[in-house]
Amino acid sequence: MHTEAVAPLPPTTSGQWIFSRRSVVAFTLAAWVFAARAWLVLAAGSVVPFWDQWSAEALTLYPNWLDGTLTWTQIVAPHNEHRIVLTRLADLALFSVSGGWNPWTQMLFNAALHAATAAGLAAMFWPALDRAGRTIFVAVLAVVFAGTSGWQNALWGFQSQVYFANLLTLGAIAGATSSPLSRGWWWGWLAALLALFANASGWLASITLFALDGGTMLRTPNRQAWRGFWPLTLLVLAGYLVQVRAPQHQSLHARDFEQFVTVFFRCLAWPHVTHGLLAVLMQLPLAWWLVDLWRSGKTAEPADRWILALGLFAGLHAASVAYTRGAGLPEDRPLSRYQDPLLLGLAAQACAGIVLAQRHGLLARLALLAWLAALAFGLVALTEFNLTLNLPYKRAHDAASLANIRDYVRTGDATVLNRKFGFAEPPEDPAVMRRVLDDPRVRRTLPAALYATDLINVNRPPFVVRYSPWLTTIAGVALALAIAVAPRRRLRPFG
């Protein structure tokens, strides 16, 4: 079935957008993803700070903030390979609003950023899809973004850097499709600039846009295209200048080309992170769509550029993970905290497959069904792995860490910080823990619940987390109803 090209729909005013079906679906999708992530926090979250939080937050950020000695140099200082300026600013804001360090608030903030990214994807591609296509696309986003694949980022308050990078990358790509130097274009350029200070992968947004506009320049060089290209060139150069080398992580780089390729294809095969060959299947919609767009000879529409940019971004992220962390990954699988950026590429694959099904009838529809089936099987396997191994590990880690903290505070015996509770190493670095707990200036910033005498309330989550199962159910019903009543509307041109 071919979709008839029609004139673009009239522009939507801000008031119409607020009450449009698209905004309702985007809002309910965000509510669903947020509630589902809050449920994950209920299942495996903890008030106990996790890993880098002890050194990056407890030792410097909050004590210096309270003492008035925190400087902008410390805010922009590197953390490993990253400049996590946005995360530090967000954590300070949450610290001030919450009246102290509250990991629960950090996790909920991460959930909100993650939900906003899912809603942004739904809103971006909504006008380009027909009724059935919208239902499939939103359903894919709902399942994928509410899943457990990014459990480390979801349960580690420090990881807002990943969600900032994803959301700003999406904003940069959406804005870059506007006319060069227009208001929307400058908003996109600003998002790309801010992404440089989310984490190291934020630079990939600028590189993606640079490659996209560079290709346009090569095909149809003109003055207008150049006006939009040179600022992106400066942005890529700025991103290069703010990059950080971390010699201590040199051993984590891929040992050889074979390992690089293995990790790269396992990233692209997501959610089949143990079967790199399935990358061929999972990347098929985008490959077919590219051939179809090239053969049509039509000028790429904004949504075409979004698909291409998101697919390219995911590929760059996969290459980055394979190169910088290839030797440090168990069984050459991308760790959970590296998987969330891959969801942007999966959204591009889903949209490409749906568009092909709209255009090419039975064969494309069968291909889409096969791709959706492969996605479903992969998600089931990945979810089972997380539920049976990773999340129980996280709960055991936090329980061990809390036991060590409470016993050290009660007895002052440093040997308790070395207890392993069955782990290969103590749950947290004993030296860092002792520095934190022995320094009154630092210790007073720790979550108050760590010192509670009532064990029942030590790890008591906030209201939103406790009632997340009910909130997830309500949001799910609202999302289903919002999709079900979406009207049949004419499509914007697409490719």
What can you tell me about this protein's structure?
The chain contains 22 helices and no strands. With 495 residues, the protein is mostly helical. Helices cover 67% and strands 0% of the residues. It is globular. It has a domain of 84 residues.
Order of helices and strands: HHHHHHHHHHHHHHHHHHHHHH
Residue stretches low in confidence (pLDDT < 50, at least 5 long) are 1-15, 488-495
How many DSSP-defined strands? 0
- Largest beta sheet, briefly? none
Shape: globular
Average of the residue pLDDT scores: 86
Structural class by sheet pairing and helices: mainly alpha
Cα separation of the termini:
15 Å
Query: Radius of gyration in whole Å, from Cα?
Result: 23 Å
Summary keywords:
mainly alpha; 495 residues; disordered C terminus
Q: Helices and strands in order, then pairings?
A:
Blueprint (H helix, E strand, L loop, with lengths): L13 H5 L2 H24 L8 H15 L4 H5 L8 H14 L4 H23 L5 H15 L5 H5 L4 H17 L6 H13 L7 H17 L3 H20 L14 H12 L10 H4 L1 H13 L5 H24 L16 H70 L18 H9 L1 H4 L11 H4 L4 H4 L1 H17 L11
Helix pairs in contact: 2-6, 2-7, 2-22, 3-18, 6-7, 6-9, 7-17, 9-10, 9-11, 10-12, 11-12, 11-16, 13-16, 15-17, 16-17
